[in-house]
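Q: Is it fine to ask for two folds in a single conversation?
A: Yes, each is treated on its own. Send the first.
Q: Here.
A: Result:
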Amino acid sequence: MKLQQLRYVLEIVRQGNHLSAAAAALNTSQPGVSRQIQLLEIELGFEIFVRTRNRIVGLTEPGEIVVSIAQRIATDIAALKTLKNDMHSGNRGAFTICSTHSQARYILPRVVEQFASRYPEVRLQLKQGDPEEICALVEAGEADLAVCTETKRPFPNLVKLDCFELKRCIVAKRGHPILSVPELTLAEIAKYPLITYDERYSGRWKMMKAFADAGLEPKIAMSGIDADVCKTYVALGLGIAILGTIVFDPNRDDGIEARDADDLLPSSTIQIALRPNTYLRPYLLDFIQSVAPELTPSVVRRTIREFQGPAI
């Protein structure tokens, strides 16, 4: 068994089961990748991938276990490669964080400003995407941590640190009747076209479950991944929006108003996701605590130890 073969498996999965795309990303030939996968399957005694007419269409049940193990091995190797530099760099080096738009726009500016002041020799890089995209970057070792809400797809190889709850509000064009109705209910909200987050965000699927549990089916006028875009279309009168309370600022958001809906709609949890084998550099721990003061270095270390389980 070769590490290269495990890298091939991971790349095929990362490329959506497209063998040619995986070969291109690995700078090798498609027959070479296919041959190495076949050799690995022969050695293991079972098939990793489900095939239809010689095309890979998914993972077998044991193949899913192989991918999970291969991912852990890959991240462990990446951690070993960077450990020497990390231990001798002190408060220098590169630090890559990922977040969704709302966190990058409304939560992280203050944190990043303080971080840049404290650690001027750390090169900070910020990447954005939806929660699953950025957790995948962390899992693959392409980022140090992610700041996001919950994901539909589980990431069993990542430690999730709960930061705080993101409550909900109704945002509407000034003068909209939803802002003055005596009793705000899900039925009242469902009367109007909704502008909300894309279904990859917990703000969308949690909201839809709340309506479904109440026997309601709201009309989705449009969806997006950017809270600012949602507010723009609310101001045009195209619908009302269900957004996190942190994204509404009465001093900046002209033409729209917000009404608290926390008692009607479930909140989301802002989390920090990182690999359990991440070297906990002092500035990484400081960054985490700046996002959530209760996540002290001792709390983070204890959570990671509990995630890893007892040593064998």
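Q: Second one now.
A: Result:
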Amino acid sequence: MAKLIDGKYISTQIKDEVKEKVKLLKEQGKEICLAVIQVGEDPASSVYVRNKKRACEYVGIESLAYELPEQTTEEELLALVEDLNKNEKVNGILVQLPLPEQIDEDKIIRAISPDKDVDGFHPESVGRLCIGEAGFLPCTPAGIIELLKRSNVEIDGKECVIVGRSNIVGKPMSLLLLRENGTVTVAHSHTKNLKEITRRADILVVAIGKPRFITVDYVKEGAVVIDVGIHRDENNHLCGDVDFEQVKEKASAITPVPGGVGPMTISMLMSNCAAAADK
């Protein structure tokens, strides 16, 4: 039976550490402010934005909320981002994705100043990650590294397989695992013999976007399984990309959904905001 990797507990640990850091920064006269922009009323986005505001309140970071209508134009959003780039009070800018179809997400990400890119999505942040320079790390992959380390999972020399190659999770995850001396394979929708590849993994990170796709046949005995997916099943219950009930019998450690990777993303965002103010 797998050990449960408790993302809620570990994320609270990190937020408490950030809270302490924020307190010290304030004692040095540094205020910390995160601007959060949401365009439209996507229900999942609204939940994420609300959770980010709560986390800011908890660690002592001021948050500015910009809730824009669905029909906001790309020019209007770019103008707001530019204003926030120039605003010395604001340390971090976060534009909640997805954006409505009239707005080019890539253009918006590139418009955010790399010094305020607390999501770690700007090409300059990605470039720094690629060459091993210090910079803002994307929150979900950085959170997964913290989950592993704080659960005493050794990454050095381990066979790591990531299922999914998105810019937000899969690709940066591979770079962060390499940074920790893991041996990394990235699998995706065109990968042949997927089961053979995932069954080699000591650490399996799943971000494929398909509910309960990874069953027990995909998992090596004693593997550590990290589930990045979040879906609602036919009974409206939350589930991940991994068939938790099956896989927990074979894995040595596993993240639940909810309560695994999700809370970590927000705590790492808070960590990035504190780092932005410290700079």
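Q: Anything structural to flag on that second result?
A: Two points. The CA atoms of residues 148 and 154 lie 8 Å apart. The chain has a mean pLDDT of 96.
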